[in-house]
């Protein structure tokens, strides 16, 4: 995966993305992720890799808050803008691995299905951690191989092929976290889909 290829892939994905990743099991999983999540007027909120705005649809009663939403794909971002053209949400085309924001800007960052699709997951998580304030939180919804989920031979063989389609099925969160646990702390880590392959993880920044 690289940025140029991801732009091509998500241009292809954009017309059909909602049919797959904002319906059925994925929609139920997103609802679990945002269950009991309430943002406030005092918070600055960042949606990293907002895509077509699937997550924003789940907080429609809170869209008047201070929300910034970024995505690297202008095609995906256009879909989100069209859905929320009458809202005050600030949509920006931006690389999650190299954001333009000052450090310690946001109280909350939401990262749904983004860490496993960027070329460098560690760089992405570090950037999210950089722009979140100390005491702030990062809400992650993504797929991870997990410490106890050893990949089968078929998964190992499929991993490089599936990467061509813009996602990594073998990313290990425990390894990723071990490179960032000096300033991030796991508050919640719970399975939401596919026997724990997809997880809701909430991190606090120390």
TrEMBL record:
It is an enzyme of class 2 (transferase). Keywords: Methyltransferase, Transferase, Ubiquinone. GO terms for molecular function: phosphatidyl-N-methylethanolamine N-methyltransferase activity; phosphatidylethanolamine N-methyltransferase activity. CDD domains: AdoMet_MTases (cd02440). Pfam families: Methyltransf_11. One of its GO terms (biological process) is methylation. Residues 48-140 form the Methyltransferase type domain. Its EC number is 2.1.1.17, 2.1.1.71. This is Methylase involved in ubiquinone/menaquinone biosynthesis. It comes from Schinkia azotoformans MEV2011.
């Amino acid at each position: 995966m690289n940025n140029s290829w991801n732009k091509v892939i998500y241009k292809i994905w954009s017309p059909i993305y909602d049919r797959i990743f904002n319906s059925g099991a994925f929609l139920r999983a997103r609802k679990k992720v945002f269950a009991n999540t309430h943002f406030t007027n005092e918070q600055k909120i960042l949606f990293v890799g907002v895509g077509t705005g699937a997550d924003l649809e789940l907080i429609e009663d809170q869209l008047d808050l201070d929300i910034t939403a970024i995505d690297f794909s202008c095609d995906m971002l256009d879909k989100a803008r069209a859905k929320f053209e009458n809202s005050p949400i600030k949509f920006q085309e931006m690389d999650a691995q190299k954001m333009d924001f000052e450090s310690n800007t946001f109280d909350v960052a939401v990262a749904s299905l983004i860490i496993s699709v960027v070329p460098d997951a560690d760089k992405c998580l570090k950037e999210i951690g950089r722009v979140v304030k100390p005491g702030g939180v990062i809400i992650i919804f993504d797929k991870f191989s997990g410490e106890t989920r050893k990949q089968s031979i078929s998964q190992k063989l499929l991993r490089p092929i599936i990467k061509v389609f813009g996602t990594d099925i073998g990313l290990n969160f425990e390894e990723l976290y071990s490179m960032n646990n000096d300033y991030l702390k796991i508050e919640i880590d719970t399975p939401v889909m596919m026997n724990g392959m997809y997880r809701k993880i909430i991190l606090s920044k120390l």
